[in-house]
Amino acid sequence: MNTFPNAQEGAGEKVNHPFIVALDFPTAEDVKTFLQPFQHESLFVKVGMELYYQEGPEIIRYLKEQGHRIFLDLKLHDIPNTVKRAMQGLACLGVDLVNVHAAGGMKMMEAALEGLDAGTPSGESRPYCIAVTQLTSTNEQMLREQLLIERSMEETVLHYASLAHKSGLDGVVCSAKEVPLIRQAFGESFLTVTPGIRVATDEKNDQARVVTPYEARKLGASAIVVGRSITRAADSYAAYERLQREWNGEEQK
Ligand SMILES: O=C(O)c1cc(=O)[nH]c(=O)n1[C@@H]1O[C@H](COP(=O)(O)O)[C@@H](O)[C@H]1O
Fold it and tell me: Which residues catalyse the reaction (predicted)?
């Protein structure tokens, strides 16, 4: 498998856990402009729907050539056969991490893994596969009133995480708020990738369950995903450095 350092390994030492920068841009040109100040850095970047639907596999090839690790965030959610075949195609791209919606159910998640195994070129490692539990833009009121889920957010996230775990997935996407519960239930090697990251002075925008990089680290998240706090900052590189220092436990803001 690809390397994905566990947040608990080397506790107390300085270990660089994945800090994933969400490249939420409409074009490859925007990405190239954004990455200019980072040209000497090897990043862990996320390509989501906005960019992939416009630029397709070419942007993945470009980012790999630049030496970046890639989370291809397409949040697959369909019938098992469709997800299996889509994952088979994505596995050829050589990305490090992909995801599905746990709401698609266990058969769909198992099919995702089958597709990835079938599509990974021999001699290469298959991408890690994680499941979105509840989007970080969802709050408890939305669970109740829109999704008709009567359980608490924590119970719901834990339930979806258990489906992902039973299906053999490598981890979940959740808010860092839910990480301690998931770690307690499924151990330290089950990945918890956490978006909804903001520092105190940031706008929440459409996010509901937000956590600072420092708190996410303390809560034991395996990785954080940061988009607008960096991509919309006046000085993106300075923002990246500041948030990364916080994530690495060097300073609290
Ligand atoms: O799967 C994801 O990456 C994801 C899941 C989730 O529950 N919430 C969430 O915000 N994300 C993604 O994480 C990124 C967060 O971006 P910012 O809110 O700008 O930091 C976006 O690219 C979202 O698509």
Answer: 73 (for ompdecase activity), 75 (proton donor), 75 (for ompdecase activity), 78 (for ompdecase activity)
Structure pTM? 0.94
105 within a domain of the structure (yes/no): yes
Report yes or no on 114 lying in a domain: yes
Note down the domain range covering 155: 19-247
Cα 128 to middle of ligand 1, angstroms: 17
Residue 194 marked in a binding site: no
List the one residue out of 191, 193, 211 whose CA is nearest residue 202: 211
Which amino acids are annotated catalytic?
A: 73, 75, 78
Whether ipTM > 0.95 holds is yes
Ligand 1 atom with the shortest distance to the CA of 22? 22
Q: pLDDT tens digits, residue range 218-245?
A: 999 999 999 999 999 999 999 999 999 9
152 vs 137: CA distance, rounded Å: 15
Q: Which residue has the tokens 């994933």?
A: 20
The domain tally of the chain equals: 1
DSSP SS3 for 244:
helix
Q: Each residue of 42-79: b (16+ CB within 10 Å) or e?
A: ebbbbbbeebbeebeeebbeebeebebbbbbbbebbbe
Q: 152-182 pLDDT, tens per residue?
A: 999 999 999 999 999 999 999 999 999 999 9
Q: How far is the CA of 35 from the centre of ligand 1 (A)?
A: 19
* Amino acid letter for position 45: V
Work out which ligand 1 atom sits closest to the CA atom of 229. 20
> 212 C-alpha vs ligand 1 centroid, how far in Å?
14
CATH of the domain at 29: 3.20.20.70
What ranges make up the beta strands (E) of 159-222? 171-173, 191-194
